[in-house]
Amino acid sequence: MEENAKKGLGIAAVILGGFSILCCACLGLGIVPAIVGMVFSIICIVRGTGSGKTLGVVGIILNGIGFLLGVYVLVSLGMMLNWDKVMDPQIWEQLEKIDPNDQNQIRDWAQQFFRIDINTLG
User: Fold this and answer.
1) Which terminus of the chain, N or C, has fewer Cβ atoms within 10 Å?
2) CA distance linking residue 60 with residue 44, whole number of Å
3) Whole-model pTM above 0.85?
4) What is the pLDDT, as a whole number, of residue 47?
5) Per residue, what are the HEC states of 12-40?
6) Could you tell me if residue 85 is left (phi over 0), alpha (psi between -120 and 50 degrees) or otherwise beta?
7) Largest Cα–Cα distance of the chain, in whole Å?
8) Please, which residues bridge with residue 81 across strands?
9) How far is residue 16's CA from residue 3's CA, in Å, rounded to a whole number?
10) CA distances (Å), 94 to each of 46, 86, 91, 109, in order?
């Protein structure tokens, strides 16, 4: 591989690492770019020299942080949900009877899925 291509992979890895950290709050969606960035980083470290290898190391660190934050967000969300209610088809049938313009009805319906009180969130 040409040195510029290795450097380009390193830059992409660093960008994906930063993006994964920013996206971790979006329901853990930062996990996907973190994994791709990790692959790019490993390629840079194995095949790169000089600044390409340095970018690979920085990419590994950023993507590792993004991956761990994404997993933390997903686990936290999973612990907040009441899974018995999420899997109950009768609750999902109630959704058809709710007025989409009435925020209180929507909030009351959604509250049954969470173990915390979402009425205090906003």
Assistant:
1) C
2) 10
3) no
4) 86
5) HHHHHHHHHHHHCCCCCCCHHHHHHHHHH
6) alpha
7) 63
8) 114
9) 20
10) 55, 13, 5, 8
Residue 112 makes CB contacts below 8 A (sequence gap 6+) with 82, 85, 91
**Smallest Cα–Cα separation from 63: which of 118, 3, 10, 16?**
16
Mean pLDDT over the full length of the chain = 86
| Assigned token pair, 103 | 């925020």
pLDDT of 14 over the 90 cut? yes
What whole-number distance in Å separates Cα of residue 57 and Cα of residue 8?
14
Annotate 42-65 with DSSP letters as a single string: HHHHHH--THHHHHHHHHHHHHHH
